[in-house]
Amino acid sequence: MELIGYLGALLMGISLGLIGGGGSILTMPILVYLFHTDAETATAYSLFIVGLTSLVGSLSHMRMGNIDYRIALVFGIPSIISVYITRKFVMPAIPTQLFEISGFEVTKGVGLLLLFAVIMLLASYSMIRPQPSKSIKPSVGFKYHIILLEGAVVGFVTGLVGAGGGFLIIPALVLLAGLEMKKAVGTSLIIIATKSLIGFVGDIEGDMLIDWELLLYFSSVAIAGIIIGSMYSKRISNEKLKPAFGWFVLVMGIYIILRETVFHH
Fold it and tell me: What are phi and psi of 106, to 5 degrees?
C-alpha cells in the first residue's frame, strides 16, 4: 500500500508542476487512505508537504520574475496569521465527537474529511469550468481590504484541512489584484509555501508526534514529481489537462463523502 502511496505522491507532484496548482488537494487523501494516517495528523503533514513542494515550484517562477512580492505580502500576511492561529488554537479546541445523526456519529476526523471533500468539489469545479476569456478585464484598482480579507479566509481553510488553496488564491490575484495568469501562479506558490510551512510550526509547538521519515520521503518524491511536471509543462496543453484533472478531483471528493458516510463502519 505504501508503494501505491509514494506513486500517488509522485503523481501529485507531477500534476502540481504541469498545471501550476490543484495537485496538493491529493495529499490528504493519499495520507489518510494509503498511509493510514489519522485525519487530523494528515492535515498537519499535508501543510509540510504542500509547503515544501510549493517552495521548490516557486523557485523557477522567481528566476523568471513571475512573483509580485508586494501582493504576496498583502495577501500572505493575514493568511499566515490566520493559518497559524487555526493550527495552534482552533484545531486543538475542536471536540473529538462533533455530533450524532440517526445513530451515525460524526467525529473530528470524519468532519475534517467531509469538509475537505467539499473543498475538493469546489476545486474540481474551478478546474473543469472553461477559463474566462481574455476579454474579461480584472477589476480596476488594487482592492487592499478585499485581498486582506480573502487572505485571512484562505489561511483559515488551509489551517483546517491542510490544502494549499491555490484554486482560491489564483482567481483572487487575477480579479482583485489585476495580475496576469503566469504572475498569479508564481505569486500563489510563494504564498502557499510560506503560510503552509508556518502553519505546520503551530503543530510542532503542540504535542503532536511527527513521523519525520514519512514526511521527508513523501516530500522528496513529490518534489521529484514537480520537477518532472515543470519540465513537461511547456509541451503539454494546460487547457486540456486541467479539466481532466478536475474530473479526477471531483470523483475523489465524491468517493471520500461516500466512504465517510454511506460506507462508514
Answer: -95, 110
Q: What is the pLDDT of residues 81-136, one digit of tens each?
A: 998 898 888 888 888 888 887 777 888 888 888 988 998 888 888 778 876 544 44
DSSP per-residue codes, 139-172: PSS--HHHHHHHHHHHHHHHHHH----HHHHHHH
Which pLDDT value is given to residue 21? 63
Q: Compute CA distances 172 → 66, 179, 259, whole Å.
A: 16, 9, 32
Grid cell for residue 220: 522528496
Q: Helical H runs in the chain?
A: 2-19, 27-33, 39-63, 69-85, 91-93, 108-128, 144-161, 166-175, 181-204, 212-232, 238-260
Amino acid letter for position 118: V
Contact 113, 256 (CB under 8 A): yes
Question: By CB neighbour count within 10 A (0-12 exposed, 13-18 middle, 19+ buried), where does 246 fall?
Answer: buried
Domain ranges of the chain: 2-260
Is the pTM of the predicted complex or chain greater than 0.85? no
Q: Residue 72: helix, strand or coil by DSSP?
A: helix
**Cell numbers at 216, concatenated:** 521527508
pLDDT at 136: 47
Cell numbers at 139, concatenated = 477589476
